[in-house]
Amino acid sequence: xxxxxxxxxxxxxxxxxxPSAVLGxxxxxxxxxxxxxxxxxxxxxxxxxxxxxxxGITAARLIExxxxxxxxxxxxxxxxxxxxxDDIVRLRHLASHxxxxxEPPLDTAVPLRTELLTRPRDFPAGRLVxxxxxxxxxxxxxxxxxxxxxxxxELHDWARPLGATGLTLDPMRAAPVVDAAAAGLDxxxxxxxxxxxxxxxxRADDLLRLGTELLRIHAGARDGILAPATLAMMRRPLxxxxxxxxxxxxxxxxxxxxxxxxxxRAAGLIDDDVYGxxxxxxxxxxxxxxxxxxxxxxxxxxxxxxxxxxQLHNLISTAARR
Length: 322
What we know:
The structure is a single chain. The chain has helices spanning 3-14, 50-64, 91-95, 112-118, 135-147, 151-159, 187-191, 204-218, 228-234, 309-320, and strands spanning 21-27, 30-37, 45-46, 201-202, 255-256, 261-262, 275-278, 284-288, 293-298. By secondary structure, it is an alpha+beta fold. It has a single domain, classed as Beta-lactamase. β5 and β6 form a beta hairpin. α2 (50-64) runs parallel beside α5 (135-147). The longest helix has 15 residues, at 50-64. It is globular.
């Protein structure tokens, strides 16, 4: 299953398009392949926006426990939020990039909670889609309000029993993003934000263990970190038919579920049930339920001309079916 995918990554590293990389593939039975290319498979990488999916799972577990629903207003956790708005920002808006909260730089020097409470409105909640990392500070606030604990403590409660023990809010421990400054990011300042939408670092093994768990749930496991119905809820599109204001390429090939990117309309993919998330410096975490496979690519370059992850999607999903 892994040989063509490993050859793809190896070629990109040898050509200098990726500085180094780790690729891993998992099924519902566990990790089936893991290899580093110019890196140790156990190395840590800054996950950037893969963090959003992990925060989303944490919030979904609280939905199961009746702590809040997708329609719960953010103002229930933060009464000072939205006092100048004539709309209501709800959890589903935060989780689907439809909150309309203006986005600060990823490496803002202003505390994220202050940014959340003071940023202006871009558009009324639920009307448009614009990618937002700051919105996940709102989800974190709702987690803390419901539990009395930091959002990352709740995350570790489900991650560590899976064996995903390497997740940390210290991206400076990870492989440095080789072109961070050229891409406009102050990594040291970014690390201080401890952002629930982008701040985690971790190893490929951490995400592969999660991939195995999600595939187990797809197979009907009732003892997983989420109930099958909850995972199905996370995969329901929340943005179908809404215009996208994103400036990122490929904004028309997906919908957003509950913190999940749903590649339902990706012309470049063989599978149409792919979900997961990518990160700013080239990190990728994806689940292909119909192929019964999940995969992780960790690397550390923000600008990657000539690298098309859809090729890797198709190599892995096709090999999994043979």
